[in-house]
Every structure is written in C-alpha cells, then in structure tokens.
Amino acid sequence: MAARGRLAWAALGFGLAAAFACWNPLAAPFGLVVGLASGIVSVRALRAGAHRPVAAAGLALALVAVGVSAVVLARTAGLGREPGGAPIVTGPSPGEGAQKLDAAAERTRAARERARKELGGIEAPPGDQREGARRP
User: Fold this and answer.
1) Averaged in consecutive runs of 10 residues, what is the pLDDT profile of the chain (136 residues)?
2) pTM listed for this prediction
3) For residue 33, what are the domain limits?
4) 29 lies in a domain?
C-alpha cells in the first residue's frame, strides 16, 4: 500500500518538474521527456488506486507540460512563423560588396605586387614537382 502511495507522489513530483521545464526553449526537451514519463507513472498510480487525487494532479500536470513543451519546441524550430518581413540584419547589395572589395584590392595592391616579386625570385627546391614551380 505504501508503494502505491509513493508512486502517486512520484508522479506529481515528475509532473511538477516537467511543468517547470516546459516553458524554456533550452529545457523544453527535458520537460517533454519528463512529462511523458510522469504521464506513464501517473497512469500506473491511477490504476493502482492509491492517492487518486494526487495521481490525477500528476497526470494533469504531465499533459499540460508535454503540450507546452511541444509548442515551445515547435515555435523555437520556426513552425508557425511567416518568413516575410524586414530582416533584422541587412546585408550589402551586390554593388556595395563589389565596391568594398575593389577598394580593399586597391589598398593592398602595392603589398601584393611586392610579395609577388619576392616570391618570383625564389627558386623551387630540387624535388618540387608542383605546377608552376621553377626548376633550377
């Protein structure tokens, strides 16, 4: 008899844990799993017949927690949102991107030419078979 009563209280405890975890997107998976486990434990406690109001409260909390966890996970994944609207961060247009790249290329042109000349004067090691490598 005492084991059945403990089962009802365990179901209520798990239901409370699931309810506390179900609203947070990071903890919602925990709320979903614990809510499902609490539902199973609650049904077992109800079938055993001990502390029916406690087991019923655990089952009610479990059902609410599983539902809310599922909604939170779905909303976090983007279900039910419209893709339209203004973006939060706008990227540069293709013309602006090309202008910035051209300006950066112009600023670094002298350094790149100097590096190209320095590398052009270096001969490749004797065993180097790469394409474009100079042979001694």
Assistant:
1) 78 93 91 94 89 92 95 86 73 88 93 89 67 54
2) 0.58
3) 2-77
4) yes
